[in-house]
């Protein structure tokens, strides 16, 4: 493409972003980055190169989100089910993840400049100790960034998350911290891996698959869901803006539903608030201790 066309396209993109910003913008976007291996196959590349391109796309999408004022992204980075893939593929993915996470730490100033806070949600017990320490370091060293939060679901599945929440709550009942009658939807939400997040406003899944694949099942009951046929590494700004435009139409319907249902927030009693604080502190202490083990001799 000649530089004149690139220049025109650049201004056209800026204009499109400006126009879409006049409408409602989702605060939290969840993404299922599907189609990386098919992309690699289509281009005669190694499977893992599809994931590398997928990672680059995620970085590009973060920039688009920042430009639009989206403040939170949750990306399905590795599902617990993905452990069932061949040993070679799982090891290859973990190697790539380690490499990218180490690079993130080396280039921390870039993440700070962009104001990106990284959180990793999922079942860390399924990861090596080295990986857990790396994740803790990424989370702790970016925790004060506040422009946009990037939640990497890694390794994650929704039913695993809910099972863990139920176990934590039952432990609380067993130890007398809370009573059986304290259990409600809000307590369950506060016990999930996503307890620091609002529910996603928009969920995007690429590659033409029309399934939820055990992703954020509890959190997306009122989320607009957008399926795109495009393979994740090929997902471009126009595809992204189509998803945002879809959300803007969906949002006006959601407003009507919210008015009809007139939902009232659940208010915690003191006992539940204390228990929730204790649970969150316990989880944060685990991450803090992992981090300290990497910096202390
Ligand atoms: C699904 O595509 C995608 C994944 C299993 C991994 C997605 C993760 C990234 C793109 C980012 C990588 C990030 C880091 C930090 C390493 P697929 O493998 O199911 O492809 P297919 O649907 O074409 O088979
Ligand atoms: Mg897939």
Report on this structure.
With about 300 residues, the chain is of the alpha/beta class. It has a domain at about 25-155 and about 200-265: Undecaprenyl pyrophosphate synthetase (3-Layer(aba) Sandwich). Helix content is about 55%, strand content about 10%. The chain has ten helices and six strands, in the order H-E-H-H-E-H-H-E-H-E-H-H-E-E-H-H. The chain has helices spanning about 5-20, 35-40, 45-70, 85-105, 110-115, 130-140, 160-175, 185-190, 235-260, 270-295; strands at about 30, 70-75, 115-120, 150-155, 200-205, 225. The protein has a six-stranded parallel beta sheet with strand order 3-4-2-1-5-6. Strand 3 (about 115-120), helix 6 (about 130-140) and strand 4 form a beta-alpha-beta unit. Helix 3 (about 45-70) packs across helix 4 (about 85-105), helix 6 crosses helix 10 (about 270-295) and helix 7 (about 160-175) packs across helix 8. The longest helix has 26 residues, at about 270-295. It is globular, with a radius of gyration of 20 Å. The mean pLDDT is about 95. Bound molecules: farnesyl diphosphate and magnesium ion. Farnesyl diphosphate binds near residues 33, 51, 77 and 97.
């Amino acid at each position: 493409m000649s530089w004149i066309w690139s220049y025109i396209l650049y201004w056209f993109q800026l204009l499109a972003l400006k126009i879409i910003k006049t409408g409602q913008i989702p605060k939290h976007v969840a993404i299922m980055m599907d189609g990386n291996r098919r992309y690699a196959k289509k281009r005669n590349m190694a499977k893992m190169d599809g994931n590398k391109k997928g990672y680059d796309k995620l970085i590009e999408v973060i920039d688009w989100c920042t430009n639009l004022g989206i403040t939170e992204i949750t990306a399905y980075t590795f599902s617990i089910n993905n452990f069932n893939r061949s040993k070679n593929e799982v090891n290859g993915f973990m190697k790539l993840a380690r490499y990218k996470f180490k690079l993130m730490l080396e280039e921390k100033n870039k993440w700070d400049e962009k104001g990106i806070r990284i959180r990793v949600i999922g079942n860390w017990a399924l990861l090596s100790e080295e990986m857990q320490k790396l994740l803790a370091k990424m989370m702790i060293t970016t925790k004060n960034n506040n422009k946009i939060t990037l939640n990497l679901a890694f390794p994650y599945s929704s039913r695993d998350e809910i099972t863990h929440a139920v176990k934590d709550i039952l432990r609380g009942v067993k130890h007398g911290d809370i009573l059986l009658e304290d259990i409600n939807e809000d307590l369950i939400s506060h016990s999930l891996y996503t307890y620091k997040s609002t529910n996603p406003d928009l969920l995007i899944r690429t590659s033409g698959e029309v399934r939820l694949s055990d992703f954020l099942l509890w959190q997306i009951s009122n989320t607009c869901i957008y399926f795109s046929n495009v393979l994740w590494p090929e997902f471009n700004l126009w595809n992204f803006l189509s998803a945002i435009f879809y959300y803007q139409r969906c949002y006006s319907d959601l407003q009507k539903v919210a008015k009809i249902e007139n939902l009232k927030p659940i208010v915690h009693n003191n006992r539940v608030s204390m228990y929730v604080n204790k649970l969150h502190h316990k989880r944060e202490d685990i991450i803090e201790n992992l981090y300290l083990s990497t910096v202390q001799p």
